[in-house]
Specification:
single chain; alpha/beta; five-stranded parallel beta sheet; 7 helices; binds shikimate-3-phosphate
C-alpha cells in the first residue's frame, strides 16, 4: 500500500523507533527521518548538549520545529519518546500521519537502555527502571490517544515489527 501521508512512530525510549523507521522506509521506498538526528543537525549540538544549555524546555521547542519540518509526505518519521507531551505535536501527528505506537514491557526497555543513555539525558544519573515507570505513567495515555495502532516490540526483532506494520497499513487508511 502507498498512503499519501507520513508514517510517524511514537513510543518510549528503547522501543525501536529509529531502527524500525529505517526498515519500514526501505520496504515502502520512502525516506526515513529520525527527529533526534534532525534536531542535532539543526542545532549543531548533541541532544545532551541541548538539554544542558537550553534545558528540557529548549529541547521541546526544537523538537516541535523539527516535527513541523519533517512532515512532508511519504516519510517514515521516528520521534523521540517525549514528542507526545506537546498537544500541538499530537494534533499535527493525528492530522498529518498514520501514527504507530511501538510499545514494550518495562523489562525489555530496561534491558535495552542500560548501555544506550548517550542521547537520553532523561536517563542520566538516575535509576533507569524507576525513571521509565514515571515517564510511562504520564505518556502512555498520550501514546494511546495519538496512535492508530499499537505494536508490542518486546519479543520481536525490528524486521518483524516493520513487516507487521507494513501488512497492517492498508487497514489504517
Ligand atoms: C526523549 C527521548 C529521546 C530523545 C530525548 C528525550 C524522551 O529519544 O528525544 O533524549 O523525552 O523520552 P528516543 O525515544 O529515541 O530515545
Amino acid at each position: 500500500m502507498q498512503p499519501a501521508s507520513d508514517i510517524v512512530l511514537i513510543g518510549p525510549m528503547g522501543s525501536g523507533k529509529s531502527t524500525v523507521a529505517k526498515l519500514l522506509a526501505t520496504r515502502l521506498g520512502w525516506e526515513a527521518v529520525d527527529l533526534d538526528a534532525l534536531i542535532e543537525h539543526e542545532a549543531g549540538q548533541t541532544i545532551a548538549e541541548i538539554f544542558r544549555r537550553e534545558h528540557e524546555t529548549g529541547f521541546r521547542k526544537r523538537e516541535h520545529s523539527a516535527l513541523v519540518a519533517a512532515l512532508g509526505g511519504r516519510r517514515v518519521i521516528a520521534t523521540g519518546g517525549g514528542v507526545v507531551l506537546d498537544a500541538r505535536n499530537r494534533a499535527l501527528i493525528e492530522a498529518r500521519s498514520v501514527c504507530i505506537w511501538l510499545d514494550a514491557t518495562a523489562e525489555a526497555l530496561g534491558l535495552r537502555l542500560h548501555s544506550e543513555t548517550a542521547r537520553r539525558p532523561l536517563l542520566h544519573g538516575v535509576e533507569i527502571n524507576a525513571r521509565l515507570q514515571e515517564l510511562d505513567a504520564v505518556r502512555r495515555p498520550l501514546y494511546e490517544e495519538t496512535a492508530r495502532l499499537r505494536v508490542d516490540t518486546s519479543d520481536a526483532d525490528a524486521e518483524t515489527v516493520a513487516r507487521r506494520i507494513a501488512t497492517e497499513l492498508d487497514g489504517l487508511q
